[in-house]
Amino acid sequence: MSIGASLKRLEDYNLLTGRGQYVGDLRFPDQCEAVIIRSPHAHAIIRSIDVEEARRLDGVLLILTASDLPGDLRPIPMRLSPDPILEKALQYPLAKDRVRYVGDPVALIVAKNRYMAEDAADFIKIEYDVLPPVTDAVQSLEPGAPLLHPDAGTNEMYLIHGKKGDAAERLKTCEHVLKEELYVQRHSGIPMETRGLLALCDEDERLTVYGAAKVVHFNHQLMARLLNKNIEEIRLIETDCGGGFGPRGEFYPEDYLIPFAAMRLKRPVRWIEDRLEHFKATNHSREQKHQVTVGFDGDGRIYALRDEIFFDQGGYIRTHGTTVPSLTQAMFPGPYDFSDIEIVTHLVLTNKTPVGTYRGPGRFEGTFVRERVIDMVAAHLKLDPTVVRERNYIRPEQMPYSNGLSALGQVIEYDSGNYAETLDYARKFMGWEQFAGKQARAREEGRFIGLGFASFVEKSGFGPWEFAEVEMRPDGRVICKTGLTEVGQGITTTLAQICSDQLGIPYEYVSVVHGDTDLVEKGNGSFATRGAVVGGSAAWHAAGLLKEKLLEVAAGQLAVPVDMLALKHGSVVYAEAEQVAMPLDELLQICSDRGITLCEKYTFHIEHMTYPYGCHAAEVELDPGTGALHILNYYIAYDLGKAINPMLVEGQLIGGMAQGLGGAIYEELKYDEIGQLVSGSFMDYLIPTSMEVPEVRAEILENYPSPLNPLGVKGAGEGGTVAVAPAIANAIVNALQEYAIPITSLPLRPEHIRKALKQMKPRTERRSAGPTG
Amino acid sequence: MTEKTAESSRLKTITLKVNHKEYTVDVEPRMLLSDVLRDELRLTGTHVGCEHGVCGACTIMIDGRPVRSCLVFGVQADQANLVTVEGLESEDGELHPLQKGFWEKHGLQCGFCTPGMLMTACHLLEHNPHPSREEIREAISGNLCRCTGYQGIVDAVEYAAKEMRERAE
Ligand code: FES
Ligand code: FES
């Protein structure tokens, strides 16, 4: 059985030997290179653009401004959760008369190479009338705030209102009420490979575009629509991809501009985003302010929850429409059973880079806020925070459980799970029972240690469907075509394992083909942790159909009932005794002689998402003098129903944790008041290095398989990320109990902790919030 | 002056020894070594993640020392001995113990940081055959990886160190 085995990845050999083919590695004769000129202002009217001098320079082949693009060109539409209300704030590939963030594309230059194109960029003269910018979502709603899209008439593009019961009424009757304001900063995926595209146009006007990622088939359709071409006239090809994490692979202005330039020039045009450009141009994510009110009783049972969320969208609506804010809101209650809920989310425009998804979209933010609030409730009542969690969890017998809210067009309905169980694992592993004693002893030595927990529910397996086609060649090799894409997560190996399991052949015999619109007939792509669940199930079924076909032929040949036979170890076997009935190559020869094609397709549909879940726990030590944080121990318990390849799942959890840690402590896309991005290089946007990321113990649990798919899988892409910030924040608060420092915003920088410590006098009496609390 | 001569007057001829092979190329003095390797020599195993010296993806060996090739001009490497990821395998195609280690221990996901990581780790193991996990972490701390959380990489380097020690015995 290869499902469930930690097999080595099929992807790795090429990547380890320098044979990988990332988009920047490709080269065609006559290839030239594009550079994009971007707005230096956060908000301005474009007065004039003079390109004449630049046009005359050596090596310059093409310069485009908005006026060179077709007059009927439409803006880039939304891919997920579209809404007509948002259409007034969509982005055109080049800014027409106004720029709305630093980095807004204004012109494109193509030259013989990038050095020449960058030279030419210096000769383009653009006159701007600078307008006052707005860089804060709450300020952007104030009367008199500059309007970003005057046509829309408001900066508040959308309001999401979710309700179950009557939270306002319920709050009036609660014994205790707590109101808090919390904030999650802007940061993003920042993959190590920046975006890039390489577009070629034949003499007969057929376009080939390399560098697509994530949602290749969707972008294929969209590219055809925007370029006014037939879908058959365009081929999109995915190359190796140096990290996805959400932002990469969406349809951006450049996905129109580079193919357009190739069509105009009839020569291959390459564009590789540089790192400084990446920080301004590629989707940001996460920035949200929350105003939460919870009502609870003296035991910590929470009854009512209200939250008003201010979501900073940046200058335009990009391809995700309302995806992130609606996920924040719908997943906000997490693993808890609250009877009355009301959440309002304002989607607000500001003069900053537009936002989209980043690993755990909405959940990273919501989990931070909610899990901090749980600890605040516990602190308020002087209770053990893990006990407060326990008292509020949805119980296994309540499954399937709907929290009454919806996102992505479906009501949230948790399929299965036991949330208390993962907390138990975490408590046990971290020694919570004994921690108060350990902490007291440490304090006697002058050390400040703390332990914090955070529970979460993730979602995965977003539908509505995914496609697979599995073919067995006469030599026994298998080709599995999938609508998924590879962004480094190992989908090739995962699908190979699934096919190998069905067909009883080594997984190395399976070649997985993905991300080529000429070769794969359709697909939705890799996002929202849907790969193993939806694409994996499609491959499972397609390979299953193929297996049935093979066994039928074998049964006819051997004159036995088909259910007596199975495929194992490269043979047809008698199912019971596992005794070889016929080698597979003999069967393949028979099929080939009879002209039987061994190729099956399957489109797997799924109506509801599935919900993996777990618990993070962090033990930290703080230096009260400097505010420096040291992670002593980190643990994740994650129940995902079934792991196809536990090694890859562990890799996802640990890698995801490192990204969550970045968001928790280090990373911030910070703007000054005139809208300049002040953390726009790796010198000041701090990604955790090997010195900051601790050893992580990831426990993979398979206790509650999903009833919604044949594999029982729940997906592993995001659970490592979403609960890091609250686990660490809660640990910090636990370490500094007597200071009562207000940890309500991210990132948790040492300087903030240091400052808070200076301002707070220790409370005289040390409160106990340990397990006996 | 024609376009061609204007360009060629700016070019300098340099000789690079890369992975035991000699290359002579004409490059503009301002061309980064990373671009020379990737675009002129077509050795695209060396990756560029930032071009400002922070991510370490472009790390190669120059005369036995790990160097960020995006911070060096091609002309500065004239006559130097370079090793890139393409030079790690042995002549007969056997993978370097580090490459094996990364494969065994799931030391890579997207693989983009991997060539730089391998070169940095290679230098570590040449100088310290018995690194502790802490020492490994310190050695690779100038190479950013966005996918793995480093744990698999540290495991991989440990694995390779052991393998190399056993080979040496
Ligand atoms: S590309 Fe050279 S250090 Fe980042
Ligand atoms: S493996 Fe993707 S950046 Fe390291």
Any key phrases for this structure?
A: 773 residues, alpha+beta, Aldehyde Oxidoreductase, domain 4, 19 helices, 28% helix, 25% strand, globular, B: 169 residues, Ubiquitin-like (UB roll), DNA polymerase, domain 1, 2 domains, five-stranded mixed sheet, 6 helices, binds FE2/S2 (inorganic) cluster, Xanthine dehydrogenase, molybdenum binding subunit apoprotein (chain A), oxidoreductase (chain A), molybdenum (chain A), iron ion binding (chain A), Ald_Oxase/Xan_DH_a/b (chain A)
What does this structure look like?
Chain B: Pfam families: Fer2 (PF00111), Fer2_2 (PF01799). Chain B: It comes from Paenibacillus sabinae T27. The complex is a heterodimer of chains A (773) and B (169). Chain A is of the alpha+beta class and 773 residues long. Helix content of chain A is 28%, strand content 25%. Chain A has 19 helices and 28 strands. In chain A, strands 3-5-1-12-9-10-11 form a 7-stranded mixed β-sheet, with helices on both faces. In chain A, strands 7-15-14-13-8 form a 5-stranded mixed β-sheet, sandwiched between helices. The longest helix of chain A is centred in the C-terminal third of the chain and has 28 residues, at 531-558. Chain A starts with 11 loop residues before the first helix and ends in a 14-residue tail after the last helix. The mean pLDDT of chain A is 93. Chain B has a 5-stranded mixed β-sheet with strand order 2-1-5-3-4, sandwiched between helices. By secondary structure, chain B is an alpha+beta fold. Chain B folds into 2 domains: 11-87, Ubiquitin-like (UB roll); 97-168, [2Fe-2S]-binding domain (DNA polymerase, domain 1, Orthogonal Bundle). The radius of gyration of chain B is 17 Å and the shape is globular. In chain B, 36% of the residues lie in helices and 15% in strands. The model of chain B has no long low-confidence stretch (mean pLDDT 94). Chains A and B meet through α1 and α17 of A and α1, α3, α4, α5 and α6 of B. The complex binds FE2/S2 (inorganic) cluster (2 copies). The site of one FE2/S2 (inorganic) cluster has 12 residues of chain B, from loops.
